[in-house]
Write a structure and sequence with these properties.
The complex is a heterotrimer. By secondary structure, chain A is α/β, with parallel strands linked by helices. Chain A contains six helices and 15 strands. Classes of the chains: A alpha/beta, B alpha+beta, C alpha+beta.
Amino acid sequence: MIDPMLPAVYKVVRVSQDLPDTATLDLAPASNSKLPACQPGQFNMLYALGQGEVAISISGDTDEADCVRHTVRAVGSVTRAVAGMKLGDQLGLRGPFGRAWPLNRMQGKDIVLMAGGLGLAPLRSVIYHLLNHRDAYGRITLFYGTRTPQDRLYAAEFTLWQQRGDLETGITVDSAGRDWHGHVGVVTTLLEGSGFDGNNTIALICGPEIMMRFSAAELIKQGVQPGNIYVSMERNMKCAVGFCGHCQYGPYFVCKNGPVFALPQVAHLFRIREV
Amino acid sequence: MTSSHADQAADQTNLPAQSFRIDRSGLDRLFAVLKDHDYTLVGPTVRDCAIVYDELTGTQDLPVGKGDRQEAGTYQLVDREDAALFGYNLGPHSWKKYLFPPRQKLWQAKLTDTGLTFSEADQATSPKYAFIGVRACELHAIQIQDKVFSDDDHRDPHYCRIRERAFIVAVNCSQAAATCFCTSMNTGPAVSAGFDIALTEVIVFDAHYFIAQAGSPSGEAMLGLITQCPAEFTDVQAAAQCVANASAQMKRQLDTTDIQNLLYRNADNSRWEEIAQRCLSCANCTMVCPTCFCSSVEDTTDLTGSHAERWRRWDSCFTLDFSYLHGGSVRSSTEARYRQWMTHKLASWIDQFGASGCVGCGRCITWCPVGIDITEEVRLMRENDSAGNSNTQRSDL
Amino acid sequence: MKSIADLLHDHPFFAGLSPAHINLLAGCGKNIHFDTGNFLMKEGENANTFYVIRSGKVVVEAYTPGFGHQIVTQVDHHGVVGYSWLFPPYRVAFDVRAIEPVSAVQLDGKCLRSKTESDHELGYQLMRRFAQVMLQRLQATRLQMLDVYRKGS
């Protein structure tokens, strides 16, 4: 019987520093065995020897067969260890886990992606998928909000997206200095006057929970059906397979019933404190 | 045994209907036969002024002539007037102590010149247990944990290995503790399924015997090795009466009517704050509860940093950092943590696993140092139900 | 005992409003009390109430799991709280919680909207006052946002 708690050995095949405290790692199985198939919205448990494990969303192109990409921000001892890894380093990996973004449902629809802060990382794998299969989707819009211009994740890549003709983008920051010529204000302000057809739109939101709550409310105001809004939730995780009980959110295990949820599943939980 | 009773018993249990009568020496023979088959006997024994589960060498290790008196926040070992072997109800231990041990090594890792490797913890010492004296509520609790640790997507091999090899000698209850409420949860007092052998201890006047029934092919085989003596109809009746006595003695009740909606809609009820003023978040309830399954992992390394291990240990939703996220705990108040435990146990569990997480064993009531009573809290929540009631006069959706 | 109209008249928000208009508003109002810790309104609810705080203090806050609640501003007996009833979709945007025992006049949103529709002078007088409070709050919020106390600025 396979032990779902036993990691496989992966090696770092590429590292890039996104921000002073955030790095993106491309990982491949050390034994050259086949990479398990994964979907945008899923996550892996990354293990740094002796430090511990952490749940990190997949942030790369899931159509890619050779490696899996993760963006890690150093906020504690485990993430610091993982984010500090170098080319050739080995680590443990378990996964992929979790319910993915609803790509099948999204076909033929207009898509709105709302990303807040580090939430752009899990949504980037959706962007890659949508652009790889561009004809299957209608209008695609990406709205990204973060603290300041210096905190922009994937800034160079975002500029490339801005230049594409088949993708609409909007970016905003909460506050900025005079070098910034872009929008300033919370990310929900990008929705105003964006003129999208709420009825034919499926929206994916990822970011801090307050940002997701307010974005959902604004999307509904713009005519998007609650059942067509998806969020990505986060809770403390130890096992990722529904055994340890830590990630429970109301009746849901974020590791198995999520992290992606349709808004009607969690709207009532949004209103309960400390749940 | 008359044929009509045999039919009736067969209808009730869907098993070989044959009941046997054995005495204490028969039980000794059963223990010996189990040991011959390499089972480690574990069951009730007296230690530290309580009846706990530990290894048994023979029937002499059972709590002979001992009973328990339990109430909210109280447990007392008492002397019985007879020499009953199973004349108690439940102690602080449950069978999860063996199936889901408090500390379990999951794997070890090694970093050498050739790279990193992970290897499973040594399985050779995986034990083969015979559980002696498993109550009906406990059988249900085991089945509940079976669902937790082996579902459609993932199975816990540590749990499954021990579970598959376990031999269960269940025992019907002949008395109910004041804290028992298995009848409310439909989990007892009679055992119904999931055992290898079921015993009912009968003590009437000078007679002291056991009615034994097989619940599985291996149970049947074991019984076949120790007895050929079928029970008389009157013996079986006496055994049934013992179980009926236990049912009748049960005082506490938990009304499970629409309990999911009751607890889901009362997340903001002021009752939680009132409970929190008493609750110490000591986690006793989760440790003694036979279905609580929460765990955490410990990652350790040696001084060289090239050998690491991962251990699993029991955890409790009552601990402050259980829900740690982004620099703080999601459930930082005792109120939120008690609400999480009770709502999970009685309501969310049904959504997650198709049945209640509570088996009515009453341990959480007995072992709570301040005597919080889950049956009472359900009753008070119904009385204080906020369907239509709001303590702040806000307008709701 | 003071009438609702008296209570409104005493409150600085309605200073300068004619007695006739105050009486109209009083028709939408009732006296209400909140214990410390109770919520006047919660994010996501139907927004249908406007509170004129007579005594005590409330905080406007948002809740994040892990960080807990973060206070954005507070309102005391000089102020009023609750504006989401003014415009659709009439959804409360932030939690409002009493941090002291609070006495307030609770004005019903639907009632206020209907009265201001039929009496535009009343509507104008109210909107002037609302706009002034909102401008003050907006300017204060912008200053808060600038994070002027951050190190090295």
